[in-house]
Amino acid sequence: MLLMKNIIYISIFFVCFCTSGQQLLKSSIDSGGDTNTAGNLRIVYSLGETFTKEHEGTIHVSEGFINAKFNIKISPIVFLQGPLLNPTTVGLMNDILRSNSYIPTTSPYGDNATVNASVFDTTGTDAIVDWIWIELRSENDPTKVIASTSALLQRDGDVVALDGTSTVLLNASPGNHHVVIKHRNHLGAMSATPITLVKDVTTTVNFTDNSFVTFGSHAQVLLASNVMALWTGNVNGDTTIQYSGTTPDIPSILSEVLNDAGNFLNFPTYVVNGYNIHDVNMDGKTQYTGNEPDSPIILQNVLAHPGNFLNFTTYQIQEQLPEN
Ligand SMILES: [Ca+2]
Ligand SMILES: [Ca+2]
Ligand SMILES: [Ca+2]
Questions:
Q1: Which residue has the higher pLDDT, 62 or 134?
Q2: What confidence tens digit (pLDDT) does each residue in 261-277 have?
Q3: Could you tell me if 173 and 140 lie in one domain?
Q4: Same-domain pairing of 41 and 134
Q5: Strands of 255-319, DSSP E
Q6: Are residues 176 and 63 located together in one domain of the fold?
Q7: Cα(324)–Cα(322) distance, rounded to whole angstroms?
Q8: Which structural domain, as residue segments, surrounds residue 49?
Q9: Are 122 and 58 members of one domain?
Q10: CA of 293 to the centre of ligand 3 (A)
């Protein structure tokens, strides 16, 4: 009788458990899966991965669906070379795109994030230079993006959230991750080693510090002021900066200038005003040749690159990310 009662209780429990069990929400899905280790406890969460073991070693639990929403606070600091070429204030990037109201309120990157136009009202040190892109990459496979977001870049290099001032939050599990910074016409860079990021505590990742080690070689340009910046001049959407050769960036600038609707007489000296990927120094003007042309900046970078021993004009500055 007692056994029968227990079976009934177990059955009731089982039915309740099944009917009120896991719900599959969009937020529950981590497309790639990941692991977390604390002491001798290791949690593996994934969707679509084949489990070969449910547990192993001391304790090793596998779960199908876990809502892995954490707030990783990260405060990257990065300089773009373009707006530092002729700085109006020493040590601060120019914010000419902002002061001319050229920066769009919708991100140029994949998440199409939007901001309130008022974030571009701030002037001075914390004025917004442009949109920027952050990725966290897997410790074990740095080609794999774990989390990513559009963010905003201040003149002093602070990368901030979409309100223009707050710390960036990323939805990822605490742990060791590579940090990648990308910009639409500069070459991206990644931390050479994984960086320990923890929940609810801000971690500063300073790409401008010349002792900060980036993946690959010469991922950034060393400026005269002894700080590092992302290389500018990748205007044709690939992963290299090239003046002349197989995939040069220069013809793309010329084409942009000649094809502009306002350039009736097809002058190569014509200036295209506005937010434009071909504007290498980010002064709000895209010019092929003339008073303030963008093309020579690309030549200067190619010739100045530490890897271009023989000063070839055809040298390619390759973006130093593991997938390239
Ligand atoms: Ca700042
Ligand atoms: Ca290019
Ligand atoms: Ca320009």
A1: 134
A2: 999 999 999 999 999 99
A3: yes
A4: no
A5: 271-273, 285-287, 316-318
A6: no
A7: 6
A8: 19-67
A9: no
A10: 6
Instruction: Note the Cα 129 to chain centre separation in Å.
Output: 15
Q: Which ligand lies nearest to the CA atom of residue 85 in the structure?
A: 3
CA of 31 to the centre of ligand 1 (A): 34
Number of domains in the chain: 3
State the average pLDDT over residues 303-309. 97
Looking at the CA of 277, which ligand is closest?
Answer: 3
For residues 179 and 288, membership in a common domain is answered with: no
* Count of C-beta atoms within a 10 Å radius of residue 149: 21
Structure tokens at 178: 């590579």
| Claim to verify: residue 89 and residue 61 sit in the same structural domain | no
Measure the CA dihedral 301/281/164/114, to 10°.
-100
Q: Are residues 58 and 163 in the same domain?
A: no
Closest-lying ligand to the alpha carbon of 234? 2
Q: Which residue has the tokens 């060791």?
A: 176
pLDDT of residue 43: 61
Check whether residue 170 and residue 145 sit in a common domain.
yes
What confidence tens digit (pLDDT) does each residue in 29-80 have?
Answer: 444 556 666 665 666 555 544 444 444 444 445 555 544 557 899 999 999 9
Rounded distance from Cα 213 to ligand 3 centre (Å): 30
Mean predicted confidence (pLDDT) in 96-124: 98
| Domain end residue (candidates: 67, 99, 129) | 67
